[in-house]
Fold each of these.
Amino acid sequence: MNIGLLAVDSNYPNLALMKISSYHKARGDKVGWYNPFDHYDKVYMAKVFSFTEDYRQWITNADQIEKGGTGYDIKKVLLPEIDRMIPDYDLYNVDKNLAYGFLTRGCPNRCKWCVVPAKEGNIAPYMDIAEVSAGRKKNVEVVLYLISFLSHQFIAIGKRNYEEYKHDCIWKYGKSPKSLIMYLKSFLYGCVIGLSEKFDESKRILETENNITALVRTTKSEIDDFLKGEKIGKARESKSDIDALCAMRGIETGKNVEICKGIHAEFVSENLRLQ
């Protein structure tokens, strides 16, 4: 089969088209960007935004046309056998050192201008690091996304649990609660400790299966640059500034959080996943 791909409203790498390309190439089909002068057995049209202009020309040189993407239909999804394909990075000449994918899908927020909650629901585990980065030379993009994702999620969890913390301070421990800012500082300090303990427990497995240690060591400067940009760095405050009660809550959160095993991991307990 001759397959044509058409990104209607974006020049950025389209993950769905990249996976569709991999799927058809694996079947022995010819895949390329749509050309109005060629004939195709099937043309896939992807549109990201609902407010952007559609493709202006009538496509008359294809036996079958399939439209997808949020710009066409927010309920339409890739078939499972396509969705789990390793993306075709050659389609966009993506650097061999990069890997694109999602560790989670959905969003807990309900921004009026965003369709993600309606399209994908609440945030939930989707794929694991090894699955996203399979076949790539190194996984810096995945690691940086994980850092960014966890930092924002830990803050969200801390804010969500702040009222419970204030209640416990007053009624259980007879002490005045810290302000939200001071609480979050100690809570996040604990999250880092808890997450570090969690990683230490699984370090040998990660090194064996995913080569994670080698990845982090060889790309430390890139990760450090990212952390500076995000204003995430080593804490300059002394340990005397850390509230033990707040930190203990963070430690438990960091230790118990589940770094997505992906939808295949049916044995992962729901209460250990980031919600």
Note: The first strand starts at residue 2 and ends at 7.
Amino acid sequence: MSQKATTQKDRAERLKALHALDKPLVIPNPYDRGTARLLEGLGFDALASSSAGYAYSIGTLDNRVGRDAMLAHIAEIVEATSLPVNADLENGWGDAPEAVAETIRLGIAAGLAGGSIEDMTPDRSLYPIDMAKARIEAAAEVAHGGEVSFVLTARAENYLVGDRNLSAVIERLQAYQDAGADVLYAPGLTDIDEIAELVRSVDRPVNVLAGLPGHALTVDQLAAAGVKRISTGSALAVAALGGFLKAAKEIRDQGSFTFTNDDPPYGDLTKLLG
């Protein structure tokens, strides 16, 4: 069962503790208030936002939602659940370290327990490593300053931009842990041996993105590799939209409604959302 947390600091401390358990924290990504409440009802211990999932839900693409709109969405997720919420804060909506620091401040004000910062620019190139490290240092100064508690995740986007060089990923994540990151994350890693090597090469909890098409690593496999957190990114949102499209195409092409045979009972939804 999930444990309830009330204040922002309570939620952040709870999220931090969930990274210290013997088993990985599985942190699914809702894309609106309703899916956040469903996931809490299913007994998950923490949630993470999905920038892509939210973008799809409002009819646009990832990285096209501005900071104010995304933070308003994130605040709705936080308000909808008593669980700690970790947010996809993209690249911090600015190149300068000061912009990243301000995004962390705003995230804390929205009630976030944690959040991730990418090292990829809007044109999908990587920041030079020294600049990327300075951005994480600025974020960590806010995340760990004074009475604040916030779990800061630093992301190395190498694999997402086509640079599948594990040594380069490790070099970046080691720099980010030195800069003050609490959790390290390299989305796109799918080889279990590479994941295990990354875990051995750093001294912070490692997050792995699960649910990528064609790569069916299990929680048990990732746990054996030493992974401490498993997120789903946009996978749940894409699964929901995939079901929507499949049902709509059945209506259009076949004039039938058999998709309703797989619908969850109304009472189940009522119970989870109640």
Note: Strands lie at 25-27, 47-48, 85-88, 114-117, 151-155, 183-185, 206-209, 229-231.
